[in-house]
Amino acid sequence: MEMEKKNLAIIILAVVLAASGVGNVILGISAGAIKAPEQKKVLKEGWTEGNQPAVLDPTDCWESAGGDVIHQVCDTLWFYEPVSGDYNLVNTLATSRTWDATKTELTVTIRDDVWFHDGKQLNASDIKFTFDRIMWFVNYSGELPDTTHEGDPSSLFYTSRGDPILKEVIVNSLYNFTFVLHAPNAIWEPICAYCACAILSPKSTPAQTYLVLGTDKLVGTGPFKYVHLLAGEEMKFERWDMYWGESVFWDEVIWVYYPDSVTEGNALLGGEVHKGGFPSSMIQQIIDDPDLIFLNMESSFIYRYIGFNNEFMNNTLLRKAMAFAYNYTYFVDVVMRGYAIRAHHLLPPGFPYYNESFRAPVWDTGIARATMLVAAAADGKDVTGLTAEAVGVNPTNDANWLAKNFYTFKFYIPEGSTTITEMGIAFNNDMNKIGISVTNDVMDWETYIWVTVHDPDRLNIFYTGWGPDYMDPFNMIEPLLNNLSNANHIQLQDQQIHEWLWEYEETLAGAPPVNSKFADRKEELIYLIQQRAINELYVELPCTYDMVVWGHHKSIGGVAYNLRFDLWHQYSYFIPGVPTI
């Protein structure tokens, strides 16, 4: 019946065209003389609404969702090779870079065949514009208006002592410039690979005003042009035909937004999208679907932790009790269905100075209750009738503990994440067993990002993750523990840790350790910092390192999966002869 309707429509169209004198068009199409327009090659990827980007401007971006957008649209001067996984810095917009003898001047030559999406050709002045703009928004001059907040990753551009790293950018010629630093700094080159240093067009980018998500256009030199964000519906990109790199297969890339991760997973299973995420509870369904490819990389560079507001929860014994009360095994085995690795410190496996033997607190309700008895009594709480017996040993004691409410806290959860919601419920149950009441404070993703950076006083307890901006262990530790960092959401103020961080940043590689069991002083400092933070102060609870798992339709090839969880579309394509969605 459907075919009859189509034939009838063609007959009617032929009659109309013949009457208008253009019936030969139909004959031309029938004979193949005139071809219908080629169908666009469109890649659709599923996302949750909770993972929509909160920002568009690279200078204000310190979130993975915004970084994924920037990676599609913009280039940095150099970046970590995304496909092989060796993560060596390779030139992209740059063709060469050379340090002077003082290690304070880095001279760079850039490509002469690069075009921005607005038609402007790249030159060295555009690099200066981009980094002058960064210096403005990180407030190097001190002239940033009170009405404009510092860019979220601004602390990356300062040393751990709070001193500016970059002094100026000097244009030497059309395609050559020099970074001038205030002092030698070993992490400047890696910083330049971060998405905050994406090179932007001065023709389309305001120098002293942030780009506004949903209103402005991000204009870079990357493989895709930014088209639009329709909140709650889609993010859209189009291929940039003048891209300087390898040709890109896709005409369009569309990120389709779903209200939660279960709906997102069902969209992948139902053939609505080519790629997509899914909660751990759906992994087996993804594996069993013959039309889908499932990949488990069995590790990642993403560290997940439960953070405490150390100013608000200014009680080491209380934090210690919570550290031993939490059932990490349940989270890994049940909530994450085994697709996670228990984390014991801030460095993921594969990083320099990762120490497999280092151990954080483990689930031990006997230690948790013994510690809580001391903490609660010191705060004047009534601990009558309670013992330090572990959960399950004495039902009467267990009931007495559940009846207590020594402390009440809020657990901060971004909406739309099934996994974090499940995890929050389990966490609340664990804390009830040591006399702590925890309620959920659910917020949308944009609020979540804003609060963690700009209003951390609002936080009590929260679950979040951290991945490297650049591939040095310093970047996994310093931003989270340095009180000058915008990522120090736990609000730690520990002088000893700060002094060790300063020493690490200023220590040459290979310096001899104080203790002979370490290879060098940097390894020793990494151990000391983490031992104090995790096993003495209990500033946060290391939970897991991600197992990076991916799912995509079998018709897609060349997917550049990697442990950094960077998202790349320019390498993928439809596999010829394989039916797609």
Order of strands, widest sheet: 14-18-13-17-15-16
How would you classify the helix and strand content by structural class? alpha+beta
Percent range for β-strand residues: 15-25%
CATH class of the largest domain: Alpha Beta
Topology, pairings included?
Elements: H1 2-19, H2 24-31, E1 42-48, H3 64-73, E2 78-80, E3 89-91, E4 94-99, E5 105-110, H4 124-137, E6 166-173, E7 176-181, H5 188-192, E8 224-230, E9 234-239, E10 252-258, H6 261-269, E11 275-276, H7 283-288, E12 292-296, E13 303-308, H8 316-325, H9 328-335, E14 340-342, H10 365-378, H11 395-403, E15 407-414, H12 418-432, E16 436-443, H13 445-454, E17 461-466, H14 473-481, H15 495-506, H16 521-535, E18 540-546, E19 549-553, E20 556-557, E21 573-574
Parallel strand pairs: 1-10, 1-11, 15-16, 15-17
Antiparallel strand pairs: 2-3, 4-5, 5-7, 6-7, 8-9, 9-10, 12-19, 13-17, 13-18, 14-18, 20-21
Structural features:
six-stranded mixed beta sheet; D-Maltodextrin-Binding Protein, domain 2; 581 residues; Dipeptide-binding Protein, domain 3; alpha+beta; 16 helices; 21 strands; 19% strand; five-stranded mixed beta sheet
